[in-house]
Amino acid sequence: MKSHFTFSKEQRNGIFLLVLIIIILQGVYFFIDFSSESIIVNKAELEKYTKEIDSLRLVKLKNNEPKIYPFNPNYITDFKGESLGMSNKEIDRLHAFRKQDKWINSSKQFQEVTQISDSLLKKISPFFKFPEWVTHPKPVKPVSNYRNKPKTFSQKQDLNKATAKQLQKVYGIGETFSKRIINYREKHKGGFIADVQLQDIYGLTPETIEYILKDFTVKTPRKINKVKLNTASVDELVTVKYIDYDVAYYIVEYRQLREGFKSLDELIKVKDFPLNKFDIIKLYLSLE
């Protein structure tokens, strides 16, 4: 074995030189940077590709956004309202308005009821879809000379007994409106109390109601037990249509301060009283 590990002087010098060369090459590899110091970049091309990537990213984000389809704002649910960006208070205001059998017929009215911001209205109003008779109302037909003379009470037909076909003879009344009038009448046993209740039927404009009342009127009004305004409690007052608890409390407060109501017309002085429904509300009230 000794013969295998015994080297001559020339062999030892050769081994030493080989090891030294390996060490030098390793040092050159680790300590000397052979990479190019300057990298040429085409800034125009880089900017072009960057813009393309950004545009593709924006397209992808837009495609991932939830799509909004046309809808009637009168039927917004809690979930729909939240997805549109409405707050709980704004949604509650809309639902409270609809519980009064009122309808929203324009973007402006929607904002007045819900009190949403201008920015949110601008975002969602393009998707509002209202009924045809709201967006494209029929032009008012001029009254012929033979109709200038109003009919007497006896000449008019009873609104509580009129058929759909009879109602459809009135200008502006088709199958839809005649059905609504009859459905409203049948909803209350005994029918209409007075002509003014036609205002409660959705879609009927003041002009159309005027045409109806030229041929029809309530001759057999529904009998009701009126609420005594000067003695009724809050719970009794809220049974009257369009009077909520807040208005009922204000009515009682006003009654106590004034020692009772002298006439029904004094109701218009009560705080937050729905003035546009005064003629309908007073049908259900009496002083004694």
TrEMBL record:
Residues crossing the lipid bilayer are 12-32
Query: What Gene3D superfamilies does its record include?
Result: AF1531-like domain
Q: Is Cytoplasm given among the entry's keywords? A: no
What InterPro entries has UniProt attached to this entry?
Endo/Exo/Phosphatase_dom_1, RuvA_2-like
- Asked if the Swiss-Prot or TrEMBL record annotates the protein with the keyword Zinc, the reply is no
Record keywords, A-Z: Membrane, Transmembrane, Transmembrane helix
PANTHER family in the cross-refs: ENDONUCLEASE/EXONUCLEASE/PHOSPHATASE FAMILY DOMAIN-CONTAINING PROTEIN 1, ENDONUCLEASE_EXONUCLEASE_PHOSPHATASE FAMILY DOMAIN-CONTAINING PROTEIN 1
Q: Under what name is this protein listed? A: Helix-hairpin-helix domain-containing protein
Species: Postechiella marina
